[in-house]
Write a structure and sequence with these properties.
Blueprint (H helix, E strand, L loop, with lengths): L1 E6 L10 H4 L8 H24 L4 E6 L18 E4 L3 E4 L2 E4 L9 E7 L18 E6 L2 E3 L1 H10 L5 E7 H10 L4 E10 L2 E4 L2 H20 L12 E7 L2 H11 L8 E6 L7 H4 L11
Parallel strand pairs: 1-2, 1-6, 2-3, 6-9, 9-10
Antiparallel strand pairs: 4-5, 7-8, 7-12, 10-11, 12-13
Length: about 290
């Protein structure tokens, strides 16, 4: 069995403040960012160990928060069954792509350390991909980053088997992806602050849910998310200027002052038309 774990950071265990997560903002302290990375890496190791104990033969750990670079690589669990992707865009052979290794050989997709979508009321740091987007819709359904990522995985018929993160992220996943297992490890106190289980207890809960999700995947109990093709993908921006820039970049037609829309022929191109990452990406310019 082969599992792909995609790790964001806002929903990781024991990370309760904005400063731990959005460390690129002015005034953020490096020691706080380092503490956040340590907590994330401990979460990754605990979940990975649970997956291997449950009989996973191949496990891919992918760091996607802010493009990657958050895992403390010298501390990540070392095992020949594990492949670590320190960034979410990389090379698969000679092909540059988003989430290398995510293909038809993967039996289950886990979205770990995730947060609620943009516009979610009373959520901790809700957003979708970028703070410029107010909403993202696939065939009329509003989704967040989990929905975008799970749609991408659906191109290869990979089922979403586990969502781990904030309480409202887990409720979002349960509402949109029938049968998905969830592990809610914290909840919002305010937009910039949350509270939750102590890290050890949160990791124990997550480990239990990893095993449950793998069992459901083996039984074929969860279906992939495959929006009907061609897909209509719409992005609503928070500002008119954001929509202007997106039209200039993508050439996509405008629906209204704030919204652009595109027709997509493959689930794996869900954001490539606008954000640039997906499958069959051009090589990086030197």
């Amino acid at each position: 069995m082969k599992i792909f774990m995609l790790w964001d950071m806002e929903g990781a265990s024991g990370i309760f403040t904005r400063e731990h997560l959005w460390y690129w903002e002015e005034g953020a302290r490096e020691e706080i960012a380092q503490e956040g990375r340590e907590l994330l890496t401990a979460d990754v190791n605990s979940a990975a160990a649970a997956a291997l104990e449950a009989g996973v033969d191949e496990l891919i750990l992918c760091d996607t928060h802010h493009g990657g670079g958050n895992f403390l690589l010298d501390q990540v669990l070392s095992d020949p069954r594990i492949t670590v992707l320190p960034r979410s865009v990389g090379y698969e052979g000679e092909e540059r792509r988003w989430m290398p290794g995510l293909d038809e050989t993967v039996d289950g997709f886990m979205v770990m350390g995730h947060h609620a979508k943009a516009g979610t009321k009373d959520a901790f740091l809700p957003h979708t991909q970028t703070l410029a987007w107010a909403d993202f819709r696939i065939n009329g359904m509003s989704v967040g980053e989990m929905g975008i990522e799970i749609c991408y995985a659906g191109h290869w018929d990979i089922p979403p088997i586990l969502a781990q993160g904030t309480e409202l992220a887990c409720r979002e996943a349960e509402a949109q992806f029938p049968g998905i297992v969830t592990a809610a490890v914290k909840h919002a106190v305010s937009h910039d602050l949350c509270a939750g289980l102590e890290p050890a207890a949160a990791r124990q809960l997550t480990a239990q849910k990893v095993v449950e999700a793998i069992e459901k995947a083996r039984a074929g109990q969860i279906k992939p998310f495959k929006p009907a093709l061609p897909m209509t993908v719409a992005v609503q921006f928070k500002t008119v200027e954001g929509a202007d820039a997106a039209v200039a970049k993508s050439g996509a037609p405008r629906v209204d002052e704030y919204t652009i829309e595109q027709r997509i022929e493959r689930q794996c191109d869900v954001v490539k038309w606008l954000a640039g990452h997906g499958r069959n990406m051009p090589p990086r310019r030197t």
